[in-house]
Design brief:
With 170 residues, the protein is mainly α. It has four helices and no strands.
Length: 170
Amino acid sequence: MSLFTYKYYDTPEGQDIYKKVFVTTKYATLAGLAGATFDVLMFSHPKGIVNTTGRYMFYVGPLVGMAAAFTVTANVAQNIRGKNDGVNYFLGGAAAGTILSAWTRSLTIALPAACVLGAAALVKKAAVDEGWVIMPTLPTNATKTIQSVRHDWTMVKDIDSLKTWTTGSK
């Protein structure tokens, strides 16, 4: 299986940790790039390539670290404990919370961030185990594509009897 087509839950917990770290950090990198682009364009307006790169690294670096810390902690806890339960995910979320508090340089949010991210990880674990759908997929015919102009997206069709205009030349 290719590394680029691998999904996090393709293998059981505790196996293929490097592939799982790649998957989670890939999504964290994309989220960090989006957030950093928003910051650079809307708020910070850095001057020069070095400052712009610094702003991107300010967002991407900690998010990638949080994703890697979650993945490694949850999977290593699975291997050490030998149980596949929510405690592993809570520990992973707590590890990500400590990185979040280091990123914000605030010791006062260390415990709340660890608890909140641990609880979010518990919800994710319960969703995976019980088959909950957190982010439903849209039906393919509901999205607009380059071919959308060929479809009639109106709510009501035109009534020909109400058209009172003519098309032009006499």
